[in-house]
Design a protein that fits this description.
Residues 24-360 form the FAD dependent oxidoreductase domain. The chain is of the alpha+beta class and 393 residues long. Helix content is 26%, strand content 26%. It has helices spanning 31-42, 74-90, 112-128, 137-143, 166-179, 220-226, 292-303, 347-362, and strands at 23-27, 46-50, 66-68, 99-100, 103-108, 132-135, 152-158, 161-163, 183-185, 190-193, 198-201, 206-208, 211-214, 234-244, 251-254, 259-264, 267-272, 311-322, 329-334, 337-341. Bound molecules: flavin-adenine dinucleotide (FAD).
Length: 393
């Protein structure tokens, strides 16, 4: 391990030299690519992680860092649970802090559709063994006095949850990847050639690999399209803010109000502001819309009536990626070419488990059938649907 690389709390003694002899390129040093590079390198693969800017300069550097295991589908629940376990195991004083914090999601009185959906989600979570409680308004008030609850019809509360700084996580995993032997090339935009899998730098130099993993976030569709491969993916814009105030817990998603919030070292972080249409990953506006912060802070104040002096510190926008069925695209596209994208606003919280699974698949393990990226032709018509809404599926 190099002197600068953080020593993660788990790892070195657990790895198997399964990747020895495999030359693998990972394109994109966001949370997913950095994790995969780390897992590939610690299994002995010869890994190069290419990043067109700096580590975490796109969505992973703009994310809220809300993490939870409260998913109702079996594979989602398994992945989310593994990810939370890994956040706990990898974090530490010298790496990135993962702060345990309960996650509450709620529907308001009169919003029967979302209230029923939350009850249905909780039933399905229980069937998966996810530890999540249903609470009434009174129970919620007793447990979380900071929250306004008199308008709440039903709430779910998940204990397998917490938050961290996504940029710090990503930087830490990229450094740990180099510590495990990976090469990191930042400020290096690349394009692809396939059959054989080849990376082409802007200066025209090329490198050939046994496998290339594309984790280029919102740029993934464009990058693959330039190599003649179409995937069903649309980037869309979301917004968030940090405000000063005192908010110790919980993290909360108000499904009726259409926003989430979590504690933050400066007070709280809140967000949503989803735009349900396709954004251009090279041209989108990185500043929050006029009025976004005022409107969101009004909703936050409603939910936190006793929090005095909630003042805006900063607001911003970033991109998430949508797929036709709201499940990600993770797996093999063609011989030697893999992808991991399309996380519909939940890519950071799943990165520790997705990175590990795709690394394993590249080195000969099984993929995740439900996320097989070839389940779509790539030219499907579909609408962007916000990732956080509560649904019956
Ligand atoms: C405001 C906001 C809040 C969010 N909150 C949450 C949250 O609380 N929890 C959660 O789970 N998710 C959240 N998300 C979603 C989350 O940010 C993403 O799902 C996740 O960061 C995706 O990680 P990634 O590694 O796939 O992509 P990215 O982090 O976007 O990384 C892709 C990388 O590829 C690089 N790249 C692109 N093209 C090339 C090229 N040609 N050559 C080399 N490199 C290239 C980019 O520069 C970039 O660094 C949020 C997103 C936003 C915008």
């Amino acid at each position: 391990m190099s002197e600068d690389a953080p020593e993660l709390a788990v790892g070195a003694d657990a790895f198997v030299e399964q990747g020895a002899g495999h030359a693998v390129a990972v394109v994109g040093a966001g949370a997913v690519g950095a994790t995969a590079a780390y897992d590939l390198a610690r299994q002995g693969a010869d890994v190069t992680l290419y990043e067109r800017g700096t580590v975490a300069n796109e969505s992973s550097g703009r994310a809220a860092g809300v993490c939870y295991d409260a998913f109702a589908g079996p594979i989602d629940a398994e992945i989310a649970s593994d990810a939370i376990e890994r956040f706990r195991a990898l974090s530490g004083d010298e790496t990135f802090p993962f702060t345990e914090c309960p996650y509450v999601w709620l529907a308001r009185e009169g919003d029967d559709r979302r209230a029923d959906a939350i009850r249905g989600q909780l039933e399905r979570m229980h069937a998966q063994g996810v530890v999540a409680l249903e609470m009434t308004a009174d129970e919620l008030a007793e447990r979380f006095p900071a929250l306004r609850t008199d308008d709440v019809a039903v709430a779910g509360v998940a204990g397998g949850a917490g938050y961290t700084d996504p940029g710090q996580y990503t930087a830490c995993l990229a450094a740990a990847a180099t510590g495990a032997g990976a090469t990191l090339e930042t400020e290096t935009p690349v394009s692809l050639e396939i059959d054989p899998a080849r990376i082409v730098r802007d200066d025209g130099t090329t490198e050939t690999y046994d496998a290339v993993l594309v984790t280029a976030g919102a740029h993934t569709k464009r990058l693959l399209a330039d190599a003649g491969i179409s995937i069903a993916l649309k980037p869309y814009r979301v917004q968030a803010l940090v405000a000063s105030c005192d908010h110790p817990e919980p993290m909360c998603y108000d499904a009726t109000g259409g926003f989430y919030l979590r504690p933050h070292p400066e007070g709280l972080l809140a967000g949503n502001g989803t735009e349900e249409w396709e954004a251009d990953p090279d041209e989108y506006d990185r500043a929050a819309n006029d009025g976004f912060a005022d409107d969101l802070l009004e909703r936050v104040r409603h939910r936190l009536p006793d929090a005095a002096d909630i003042d805006l510190e900063r607001a911003w926008a970033g991109l998430c990626t949508a797929t036709p069925d709201r499940d990600p695209l993770v797996g093999q596209l063609e011989e030697g070419l893999y992808v991991a994208t399309g996380f519909q606003g939940h890519g950071f919280m799943r990165a520790p488990a997705i990175g590990q699974r795709i690394a394993d698949q590249i080195l000969g393990g099984e993929g995740i059938d439900a996320f097989d990226p070839t389940r779509f032709d790539g030219d499907e018509e579909f609408d962007v649907v916000e990732g956080m809404g509560v649904t019956d599926d």
